[in-house]
Amino acid sequence: MAEMTLESTERSPGQRADGAMPVAHDVAGLRVLIANLYFVGAPGSPHGWVLVDTGVGPCADMITRAAEERFGPGARPTAILLTHGHFDHVGAVQTLAERWDVPVYAHEMELPYLTGRSDYPPADPTVGGGAMAWLSFMYPRRAINLDARVVPLPADGSVPPLPGWRAVHTHGHTPGHVSLFRESDRVLIAGDAVVTTHQESAISALTQSPQEVWRPPAYMTTNWINARRSVVELAALNPSVIATGHGQPMRGAAMEQQLQTLAYDFLRIGLPARGRYVREPAIADENGIEFVPSAAGPPIPKIVAGLALAAAGYALWSRMRRGETAGS
Predict the structure, then answer these.
(1) What pTM does this model have?
(2) Which of 16, 68, 186, 200 to pair with 117, CA 20 to 30 A apart?
(3) What is the per-residue burial (b if ≥16 Cβ within 10 Å, else e) of 296-315?
(4) More confident residue, 297 or 99
(5) 164 phi-psi bin (left φ>0, alpha ψ -120 to 50, beta other)
(6) Rounded Cα gap, residues 137 and 104, in angstroms
(7) Considering Cα of 195, then 192, then 227, then 309, what sign does the dihedral take?
C-alpha cells in the first residue's frame, strides 16, 4: 500500500482556481499551508453554515475572505467546530470566534486543551521519518483558552449546528479528536484520524504526493491503540468521500480499498516500528494529560538534517521568488 503511486489512485477533482477543494454539494475545503479546513453548508441555505477547523497561524483574514466569496459579503457561520486542538487546526479560532461572535464546538475530552487546563504531550520526532517528524519538537503544544466560547458536543454524537451529521469520537491522535459523518451521502470529514498524504514527510506535506489513505500524523499521535480503533471505526462507515486535515479529498474504489486495507492491516502498515508512544501511550482524562511515557532521546542527526532541508527549501523558494519578481 505504501508504494502506491499517485497515478494508481482515484482522486477528487482537486483544488479549484479560487482555492476551494470540492467535497460535496455543500462541503468545500480550503488549504492553509499544510492543513485543511472545511466550509459545511450550501450557499443561501436557511440553516446557515459551519466552519470546521481554522487552519495554521494568523489566517483569519484569508478564511473570512474565502467565506465571503462562498456565502456572500458579511457571511458568518452559525458555529465553528474543531476536530481537535492541535496548532495547525486552531490557528484562527480565537480571532474568528470573536469576530463572528459564534460558539466553538469540540468533544468533551478535548476541552482541557482548549480552555488552558492542560498542554498536549510532547511531539515525537523519533517516529515516522521525514523532516516534518524530525522538526516536530519545535511545534506548539501549549493549550489555548477559548473560555466560555467553547461548548462540548453532545454525548449522543449529534452535532447541534449540523443536523444530519454525527460526531464520531476518533481518539488516538488526540484524546478528544472527532470526525464528522453524514449518513445520507456517506461524506466523511475525518480530521487527522486518517489523512491522504504522508504527513511525516515535508515533501509529501507540501506536494500532497503520493495521495493515499494513510495513518494519522505519527509525530503528534500519542495513543496508537486508540488510533487503530478509530481507523477501524471509520472504515466500518464505508464513506463515499474522505475529506481530511492533510491532503486532498479522495473518493472512489481506490480510496475505499486503501481505507479498508489500512484498518485491516494497521499493525503492519500503519503502526510505526518504534517511537515514544508506540509501546506505551500517553494517558488522559477529562482534566487533561495524566501520564506521558519517557522519551528515548531526540534523533539529533535527523533533526539537524531536517533543519538543513528546511533551510535549503526556503532558500530555493526565495531564489524562485526573486526570479519571478525580476521577470515581471
Answers:
(1) 0.87
(2) 200
(3) eeebeebbeebeebeeeeee
(4) 99
(5) left
(6) 28
(7) positive
Cα–Cα distances in angstroms (integers) from residue 160 to residues 33, 104, 105, 206, in the given order: 30, 11, 9, 34
| Angle at CA of residue 91, ends 123 and 227, nearest 5° | 40
Name all domains of the chain by residue range, CATH numbers in brackets.
11-297 (3.60.15.10)
Candidate from 73-87, 173-187, 257-271, 286-300 with smallest mean pLDDT? 286-300
Amino acid identity at 10 = E
Q: How far apart, in whole angstroms, are the C-alpha atoms of residue 91 and residue 88?
A: 6
Contact status, residue 194 vs residue 211, Cβ threshold 8 Å:
no
122: which 3 cell numbers? 510532547
Query: Rounded to an integer, what distance in angstroms lies between the CA atom of residue 8 and that of residue 2?
Result: 12
**Nearest residue to 150 via CA among 87, 59, 85:** 85
